Amino acid sequence: MTQLSFPRRLWGHFRTITEHKFRVTRLCFQMGLIRQGLLHDLSKYTPVEFVPGVRYYQGYRSPIDAEKEDRGYSAGWLHHKGHNRHHWEYWLDKKDGRLVCLRIPSRFVAEMVCDRIAACQTYQKEKYTDASALNYYLQGTDRHYLHPETAAQLESYLTWVRDEGIDRAFARIREDLRQRSF
User: Fold this and answer.
1) Which is nearest to 24 in space by CA: 95, 111, 131, 144?
2) Which of 26, 27, 47, 165 is geometrically suited to a Cys-Cys bond with 114, CB 3.0 to 4.6 A?
3) What CA–CA distance (Å, rounded) separates 81 from 52?
4) Is 153 exposed, middle or buried (0-12, 13-18, 19+ CB in 10 A)?
5) What is the DSSP annotation of 106-124?
């Protein structure tokens, strides 16, 4: 692995997280989640998240993974998932010594869809398709740590994006959010 200079890592990380944030903001606005779009991932600009992001930036994958490989954990990721309700890890708790997966409110499931689409667009670039976010979700283990109702809702939303495209899927999601009380 070639070590990038500090200025390249600084600019590369800033550019990547800002591009991702703008993509999510645009998608959230399209979904009608204005406040969430504006506030999405602002914690990435705090020192606890930004500094390790620059230090471990490589340009082709998340710096979180590189930090975990180096240190065994990522302080930035621990902070991020604990401060951003669109991450499923935020909704894990412990009760009577057992891990409990809480049901995620629908507006955060919708933001999670925007986040996953934007992440795929940012990292996959020209290889992105409307199936990318669903494929990434199905290949991962996230769904095993989601409340069953949340997992079903998220998978439905991502399937709508794959099958109908972003515009039509988001119209359906907006309507679904209006009908849900949670």
Assistant:
1) 111
2) 27
3) 15
4) buried
5) HHHHHHHHHHHHHHHHHHH
Beta bridge partners of 93: 100
Question: Most distant CA pair in the chain: distance in Å?
Answer: 51
User: Looking at the DSSP assignment, which residues form a beta bridge with residue 101?
Assistant: 92
What is the share, in percent, of the chain residues with pLDDT greater than 90?
Answer: 92
CA-wise closest residue to 150 among 95, 90, 83: 90
Contact present, 102 and 59 (Cβ < 8 Å):
no
DSSP H helices in 32-139: 34-39, 47-55, 63-71, 75-83, 106-124, 132-139
Q: Chain-centre distance of CA 23, in angstroms?
A: 11
Q: What is the DSSP letter of 6?
A: H
Residue pair 101/87 in contact (Cβ under 8 Å)? The answer is: no
- Dump pLDDT digits (tens) for 67-103: 999 999 999 999 999 999 999 999 999 999 999 999 9
Q: Per-residue pLDDT averaged across 35-61, rounded?
A: 96
pLDDT tens figures, 148-182: 999 999 999 999 999 999 999 999 999 999 998 77
pLDDT at 1 over 50: no
